[in-house]
Amino acid sequence: MKLVFLGPPGAGKGTQAEKICQEMSIPHISTGDMLRSAIASATPTGLRAKAFVETGALVPDEVLIDMVRDRLNEADCANGYLLDGFPRTVHQAQALDEIKAPDMVVDMEVEDEHLLSRLTGRRVCRACQGTFHISTLKDENVCPSCGGELYRRKDDAPETIQNRLNVYHTQTAPLIDFYRRAGKLAPVNGEGTPEEVTAAILRALRG
Ligand code: AMP
User: Residue 113: inside a domain, yes or no?
Assistant: First the structure.
């Protein structure tokens, strides 16, 4: 199964992608994680992407398209993939159709007013990359899953979040129509508990 997870920042794409990938035995490909790791290692891609990622702007299409093409040609993608955070523009979606077109696109719907508190309270583990919300943590600095150090992403600062939401509405939301017209869109309510959302996604995927 070749899957794309679409939705605004903070919709829960990463959390849900982990669960669905385990269930369906396909690799979870998060372009945000790939870029953050490239930035941390100061690779040429990372150096090019840094300022865009930190201000919540989109990294240029050609950087992302080359990165995703290489990743989808790796052996573990032979039976499918779950893309989380790509495509984010119509141009990227057209390129993906040429590389390995998705079978289905899950659109996780969450109202803007809920996204702000989800993003400002989000913490990420430096060791396992797990994401958590401070409302569920005993200690804001310690990963409840592996004991690693938790941090707040630079782009989860309140002043950057509004920019990311604007970018989503102007550049990424048009993909909802793009995939609806292609007959591939599966809208899912992303506002329930994580377990409810996982169940809704699995129902949508199993038709
Ligand atoms: P994410 O972890 O998906 O929220 O992505 C974090 C940041 O990485 C975004 O705000 C962008 O700066 C960059 N990024 C991730 N995926 C893409 C993409 N498909 N196109 C352009 N920029 C991206």
Answer: yes
- Judge whether 8 and 168 are in contact, CB under 8 Å: yes
- Report yes or no on 73 lying in a domain: no
Gap between the Cα atoms of 201 and 207, Å rounded? 10
15: in domain = yes
Q: How far apart are alpha carbons 27 and 161 in whole angstroms? A: 28
Model pLDDT, residue 207: 80
Ligand 1 neighbours by CB, cut-off 6 Å: 9, 31-32, 35, 52-53, 56-59, 64, 85-88, 92, 155, 164
The answer to whether 140 and 150 are in contact (CB under 8 A) is yes
Residue 144: which domain range? 2-26+79-206
Does the predicted TM-score (pTM) go above 0.90? yes
The answer to whether the bond into 102 is cis (omega within 30° of 0) is no
Q: 105 φ, ψ to 5°?
A: -125, 115
Can you give the pLDDT at residue 59? Answer: 98
Task: Give the nearest ligand 1 atom to 164 CA.
Answer: 10
DSSP label at residue 85: S
Question: For the chain (length 207 residues), average pLDDT per consecutive 10?
Answer: 97 95 96 96 97 96 98 97 98 98 97 92 93 94 97 92 95 98 97 95 92
